[in-house]
């Protein structure tokens, strides 16, 4: 049912009024950005009614609440998504047209709230969408970074980072909630005092610096169910005139430092993905949002419950990787020092409230904090971790008497460091991986000792994505076609897509499907022309790799193969070759020099290939600048081939792979992460699988690596490609790509050359690419394959993932908000 607010006339009136009220302008005078704001306020108004209604329903029904604790939420734009979920996109589009406005232009005015890096942050955003849609009460807890993920500009082929000042015009979909502010304390020391009344020690934290945490709430709308949940992100403000305790009075320097602390703490998102830097400010950020969120959760619980020992019946904290793991010690602190519980009771509650998700096995991503830093910054929390560690070591000794290896491998504090994953596993009641293969690797390799000691904690939750954003909003043509064929239920039940299988041999349906793909390719071609100035042919195969730039994801393998194809075409101009457009999009962490060089290489290859008239436009290479959620939606819809080519065992799950599949692009990939399950769903004949298996890779790794020299010396075509990195083919500066060349071959290169088996998998990849070309030439076969990818993607909805979390870990209650 359409809300009154979204009746066209009402809506138009409201937009005009907002423009007047906000900017003292008429619609004709207002800029597109101002109109975006006005439209958003109209939409927010409707959302706020549902938000209040949801709050009322929750108060009445008292459901268990999940707090999804995450340093990152990669939300993407809110306006279009909210309109989809409110069932009002069509009406609003028409209303805007009647006002002479294009909804796409209006949507384009919104900055992408990019408060995340990549997979982990986007997963958090998909989960919030599914939680609201499935009628569960959930809070996202995070940080309101002033500057989110940097904007990527490409200058002379290099990545240049520009600040992302997403709040500069004010963000319409947030609400400041100063009445829920909390204090967070850093530094200082702990004084112990005997408490004769309760017959126990009292720990008093003194000499600290305090920061005020102020929450901003963003509404998370469910699909067509009136549910509005909350993403609560914390801003930091100086404490002045806020509970300044007597200790601080007159301490001018401390006051100034507190002011600085508040100013820096939420300033910027660390743009590291899968690489731990050990920066003090990052630990401050973690403790800041965790402490504030826990305080708020406990306060909320106590408003309507008087027995804190039953907290776990109403509350669960899900820790999105180890980044918020300090939560377990902070919860202990709050339960003991604030609520007055003893250790055993506090531990019992904590271990029933906290659960941990692991998102990576990359060893350089594992968070370990130096004791010195940790104990200085969080003295009381560190004391608690020490005690957790002491008790855990006793447990190890009891279970494995005399086995010091176990202590060495499992201790929470060891080698001068606090190991956050160990803390999360010991204190959490659930440990999950994010795809079947990933969970098996955790159990049998990375976390083997923990799995053997506490097998009951380990479980798998294969990731998913929300079809509301990545099909309904991102690919309206295909969404309408699907609805036309099987009805609209797929929007909340993606398993319905399997009904499309009956069209796999229906020529008319296949043609419609491919016509939509073509139109989406034209849309992307237009985007590329506007943003990159490169003309690409929508009749060519759109072969796409978009994701963070990382060596393990092997964009380098992709571009080396492009060079190889280029050489082939040059050497055999008469050769039969189906035109191909290789499209890349990727941000590299600002400090990751080799990753940035790979971007430069892609752009240098693009320069040469795209400007070589002798190849008749058979090959094009495009690097899409500033890959982010908003352009991702357009990119997935237009893909023919989905590149998922990580070194097996390294990609925990991947979620881009699922977005491509949903939009009808077959996977060209390794048997890694969720690719394994994608192939299982769609059938091997509808994917292009290549490369070494995770077992083979792990086996090599455990036995000192493999020998890329052998390949270099015996495969002249690969050798030619490598030579071209350093002989001036792609840069007159022959040193430009020396480091990349060395990384593949140089034995002095630590820990070993070609760590990611690029040469080892090259031939197998090239053969798989050949199979892609053959398949694409057979139009009917390709159409069937593409359609079947969409039809078999039902498993990969985040609705399914969330329901599994609810059934196995969270045990939430369904709430009813919308009365029928
Ligand atoms: C401490 C620096 C740091 C920052 C981010 C370490 C690790 C991370 C993330 C855990 C990296 C990440 O985003 N992992 C991705 O998580 C996705 C969601 O589960 C998976 O689909 C991806 O395979 C995984 O790389």
Rg calc? 27 Å
Helix-strand makeup class: alpha/beta
SS strand fraction: 5-15%
Q: What is the name of the CATH architecture of the largest domain?
A: 3-Layer(aba) Sandwich
Number of helices: 32
Bound molecules: ligand 26W
Mean pLDDT: 96
Helix content: 40-55%
Work out the oligomeric state of the chains in this entry.
single chain
CATH C-level name of the largest domain: Alpha Beta
Number of domains: 3
Low-confidence stretches: none
Please describe the biggest sheet, giving its number of strands, its sense, and whether it closes into a barrel. 10 strands, mixed
CATH superfamily of the largest domain: Glycogen Phosphorylase B
CATH topology type of the largest domain: Rossmann fold
Shape, please? globular
Distance between the termini: 11 Å
Give the tally of β-strands.
25
């Amino acid at each position: 049912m359409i809300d009154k607010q979204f009746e066209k006339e009402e809506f138009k009136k409201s937009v005009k009024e907002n423009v007047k009220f906000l900017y003292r302008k008429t619609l004709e005078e207002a800029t597109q950005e101002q109109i975006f704001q006005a439209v958003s306020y109209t939409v927010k108004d409707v959302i706020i009614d549902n938000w209040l209604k949801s709050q009322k329903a929750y108060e009445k029904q008292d459901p268990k609440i999940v707090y999804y604790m995450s340093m990152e939420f990669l939300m993407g734009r809110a306006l279009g998504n909210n309109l989809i979920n409110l069932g009002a996109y069509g009406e609003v589009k028409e209303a805007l047209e009647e006002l002479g406005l294009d909804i796409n232009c209006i949507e384009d005015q919104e900055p992408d709230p990019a408060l995340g890096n990549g997979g982990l942050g986007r997963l958090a955003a998909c989960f919030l969408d599914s939680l609201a849609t499935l009628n569960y009460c959930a809070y996202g807890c995070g940080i309101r970074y002033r500057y989110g993920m940097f904007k990527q500009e490409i200058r002379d082929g290099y990545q240049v980072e520009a600040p992302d000042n997403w709040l500069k015009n004010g963000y319409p979909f947030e609400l400041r909630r100063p009445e829920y502010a909390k204090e967070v304390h850093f530094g200082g020391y702990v004084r112990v005092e005997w408490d004769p009344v309760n017959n126990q020690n009292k720990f008093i934290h003194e000499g600290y610096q305090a920061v005020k945490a102020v929450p901003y709430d963003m509404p998370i709308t469910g699909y067509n169910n009136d549910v509005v949940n909350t993403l609560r992100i914390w801003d930091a403000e100086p404490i002045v005139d806020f509970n300044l305790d007597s200790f601080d009075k007159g301490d001018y320097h401390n006051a100034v430092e507190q002011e600085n602390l508040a100013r820096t703490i939420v300033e910027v998102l660390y743009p590291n993905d899968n690489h731990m830097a050990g920066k003090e400010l990052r630990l401050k950020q973690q403790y800041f949002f965790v402490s504030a969120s826990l305080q708020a959760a406990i306060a909320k619980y106590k408003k309507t419950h008087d027995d804190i020992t039953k907290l776990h019946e109403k509350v669960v904290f899900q820790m999105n990787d180890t980044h918020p793991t300090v939560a377990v010690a902070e919860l202990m602190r709050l339960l003991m020092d604030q609520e007055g519980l003893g250790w055993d009771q506090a531990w019992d509650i904590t271990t029933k409230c906290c659960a941990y998700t692991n998102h990576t096995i990359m060893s350089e991503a594992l968070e370990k904090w130096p004791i010195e830093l940790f104990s200085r910054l969080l003295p009381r929390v560190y004391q608690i971790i020490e005690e957790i560690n002491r008790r855990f070591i006793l447990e190890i000794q009891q279970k494995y008497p005399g086995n010091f290896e176990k202590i060495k491998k499992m201790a929470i504090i060891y080698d001068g460091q606090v190991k956050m994953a160990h803390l999360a596993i010991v204190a959490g009641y659930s440990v999950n991986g994010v795809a079947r293969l990933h969970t098996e690797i955790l159990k049998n390799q990375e976390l083997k000792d923990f799995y053997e000691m506490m097998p009951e904690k380990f479980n798998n939750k294969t990731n998913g994505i929300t079809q509301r954003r990545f099909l309904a909003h991102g690919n309206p043509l295909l969404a309408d076609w699907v609805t036309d064929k099987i009805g609209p239920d797929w929007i909340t039940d993606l398993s319905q897509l399997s009904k499309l299988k009956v069209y796999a041999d229906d020529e008319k349906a296949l043609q419609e499907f491919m016509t939509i793909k073509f139109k989406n390719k034209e849309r992307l071609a237009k985007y590329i022309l506007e943003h990159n100035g490169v003309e690409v042919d929508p009749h060519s195969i759109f072969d796409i790799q978009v994701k963070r730039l990382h060596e393990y994801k092997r964009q380098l393998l992709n571009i080396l193969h492009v060079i190889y194809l280029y050489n082939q075409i040059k050497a055999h101009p008469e050769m039969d070759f189906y035109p191909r457009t290789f499209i890349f999009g990727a941000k590299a962490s600002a400090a990751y020099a080799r990753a940035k060089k790979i971007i430069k290489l892609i752009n240098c290859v693009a320069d040469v290939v795209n400007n070589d008239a002798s190849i008749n436009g058979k090959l094009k290479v495009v690097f899409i600048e500033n890959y982010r959620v908003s352009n991702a939606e357009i990119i997935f819809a237009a893909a023919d081939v989905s590149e998922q080519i990580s070194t097996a065992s390294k990609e925990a799950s991947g979620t881009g792979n699922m977005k491509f599949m949903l939009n009808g692009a077959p996977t060209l990939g390794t048997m890694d992460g969720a690719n394994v399950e994608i192939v299982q769903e769609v059938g091997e004949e509808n994917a292009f699988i290549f490369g070494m298996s995770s077992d083979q890779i792990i086996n090599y790794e455990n036995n000192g690596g493999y020998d890329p020299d052998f390949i270099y010396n015996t495969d002249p075509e690969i050798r030619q490609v490598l030579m071209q990195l350093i002989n001036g083919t792609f840069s007159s500066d022959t040193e430009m790509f020396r480091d990349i060349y060395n990384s593949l071959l140089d034995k002095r290169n630590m820990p070993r050359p070609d760590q990611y088996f690029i040469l080892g998998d090259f031939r197998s990849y090239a053969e798989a690419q050949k199979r892609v070309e053959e398949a694409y030439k057979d139009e009917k076969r390709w159409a069937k394959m593409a359609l079947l990818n969409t039809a078999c993607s039902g498993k990969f909805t985040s609705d399914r993932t969330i329901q599994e979390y609810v059934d196995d870990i969270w045990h939430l209650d369904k709430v009813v908000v919308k009365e029928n």
